[in-house]
Amino acid sequence: MITPTTNVILHAFDWPYARVTESAAAIRQAGFKAVLVSPPMASKKSDKGTQWWQRYQPEDYRVIDNQLGNTRDFKCMVDTLGEYGVDIYADVVFNHMANESAERDDLTYPSPARQQAYQQQAEHYRALTLFGDLSEPLFTESDFVTAFPIENWENPWEVQHGRLSGGKSDPGLPTLDHHDNVVKKQQFYLLALKTLGVKGFRIDAAKHLTLQHLQAVWTPSICEGMHVFGEIITDGGVSKTEYELFLDPYLKDTRLGAYDFPLFHSIYNAFEKGLPLSSLSHPYSVGEALAFDRAITFTITHDIPNNDVFINQVMSESNEHLAYCYILGRDGGVPLIYSDLDTSDIVNHAGQPRWVDSWKQHQLQQMIAFHNVMHPYPMHVLSAGQDHLLFSRGNKGIVAINRGEQPITLSLPKGRYRHCLGHVNGLREQCGQLFLPPNSCAMLINLDD
Question: In the annotation, is 405 catalytic?
């Protein structure tokens, strides 16, 4: 499996595929080398629009036909980004199918209504087909496990066999079994996307998939030439129950990458909860970060602002900015930068949707440029304390962060430095000293190296 250490990923969460296509040149200019898009499958769509979470309720794998676009739109997006040297990563949902209990009692997918549409618009859907025979169902009742809601979230068997639901009155999302027919169809789908030019896969709800299911689907041949990583949400690193029950077995028994939730919680605790910034000096050595070649690092994922259970993990704007300086300045992992189209209704300091255009911010783009230059150089902590962290990238770069409310002065290694993040009020460097204003960060390149 390829784990490209320089590919900063833009998570174009719930962007229509045409919008990604239209933004291709700007995405490349911003320094991104990959774009993660929402699940390219058949799911509910409406002339009035649908909620983002309906993208995570698949109706069929064999066609791309959802609120964000269809197979033609997806192909155009892949081809256009390819012209700019930007890869496409696809979010895939293999744990479950759509909850359609309000409309029908059976577990045949796609639904009779969608199958009828296939017949009535045969030529249209033939052009959208990725694989298989649309005159036959993709899955039937025998492809699902017995229905029951998850109640004990610390019981791995229950989490990996039960249904995700909104409570006892909600039948929940039908959970797929991992027998041969399911695995075969899921592999056909992945191979079809690879044929279109997809270069990476995010495994949604990987925590809910058994290791046997993951191992059966994600074979070496499926993973060849691909960057594959799973979403296994935990509340911390090795000392936490969720890590031990779900993430640790995944890391031990697969070769796939994963979202670095241990590091995220370390970052959140340092910037939002007041833990010493020195705790971010060597998080891997104390089990609070994943190995450099397995980690997807981030400051926010789509679940955090869009789900009530995680909303308290949204960092302040200023702390999110400093956290991006950290993950784009450090070594290890592939950074994921989040952008949405205002699915959460959270606004920034100017009263605008917070993450719609955040990926275009000049300082963030300069951080990405720093990351892309510094990826071969090891990180060495020079100074760390309650409110500051100073580290080098070999002899080539310097990253400095001041989370505190007071300015600080830090000693720099000998050299002539170029400031990468542009003008910051109060930031200056003189006679080997860096004067760093409150709640600010700096990235420097040593011109003498």
Answer: no
